[in-house]
Amino acid sequence: MHELYAPFNRNHDRLIFMDIRSAELTKYAANAMLATKISFMNEIANIAEHLGADMEHVRQGIGSDTRFGYQFIYPGCGYGGSCFPKDVQALLRTAHENGYQSEVLAAVEAVNKRQKRRLVDLITRHYGDDIQGKTFALWGLAFKPRTDDMREAPSRVMMETLWEAGANVQAHDPEAMDETRRIYGEHGSLKLCETKEETLEGAHGLVICTEWQHFRAPDFDLLADKLKDRVIFDGRNLYEPDLVKKHELAYYAIGRGDSVKKEN
Q: What would the 3-class secondary structure string for 114-155 be?
């Protein structure tokens, strides 16, 4: 193995040899650790909302500590995909089957499940319980950028909850449109749009579920003109609240903007 991989190990040895059980546990533990960082930051963001703190400032402060760094400390509307949910659940089940209850991993899973409803909670806070007949523009369907993967995607929880409440969704994603059609078919409360601007036509508010690059610099004047209720629900903290406010738009984010408890 050393001879085979020698051309790739010129700077330092990247090979680590261990027994099969340890290798398997390493793989699950690595993904569970990253999922833990995400759920922890989401928990802190929810605490920040109650305390009146700005989560972006908190994130920058934590990331500046070299013991932690900036990777995987962005709060949001929950993690999805094929790896993190599956591996956390598998490790939980394996521990249980072998006589150990992992309270930390159970909390990671519980926080993430709750976090996928966070945008709906903010929508309910803004509108009250009755959103029947409302239409929401949705930017982002895939669980993360640069993929069409919608497995365990927060967008699915958000859309399905809105539909149950009688609301409609007009959605756009650069990659996941075909996958959305495969999952939901011709759903009566879902319209798939070719551009992000098309989703705004007749929409009451904008919801953001995926941090695609071309969602990061929108035309806020256009948003203010098109959105009937002039409100944004941002599940990825893409914008500065003060900038959004200058365009007279309400802005709910994760531990930022109108999501945060105001000082008395």
A: HHCCHHHHHHHHHHCCCCCCCEEEEECCCCCCCCCCCCCCHH
Q: Which amino acid is at 148?
A: D
Q: What is the pTM of this model?
A: 0.94
Q: What share of the chain is helix, strand, coil (3-state, %, to 5)?
A: 45, 10, 45
Domain, as residue range, for 32: 20-115
Tens of pLDDT, residues 108-145: 999 999 999 999 999 999 999 889 999 999 999 999 99
* Closest by Cα among 155, 94, 69, 167 to 126: 167
Same domain, 111 and 124: no
How many Å apart are CA 84 and CA 90, to the nearest integer? 10
- Identify whether residues 27 and 94 lie together within a single domain: yes
Q: What share of the chain in percent tops pLDDT 70?
A: 99
| Residue from 221, 178, 177 nearest 200 by CA | 221
Please say if 83 is a catalytic residue: yes
In a domain, 5, yes or no: no
Q: Which of 77, 83, 193, 209 is catalytic?
A: 83
Structural domains counted in the chain: 2
pLDDT, tens digit, for every residue of 132-191?
Answer: 999 999 999 999 999 999 999 999 999 999 999 999 999 999 999 999 999 999 999 999
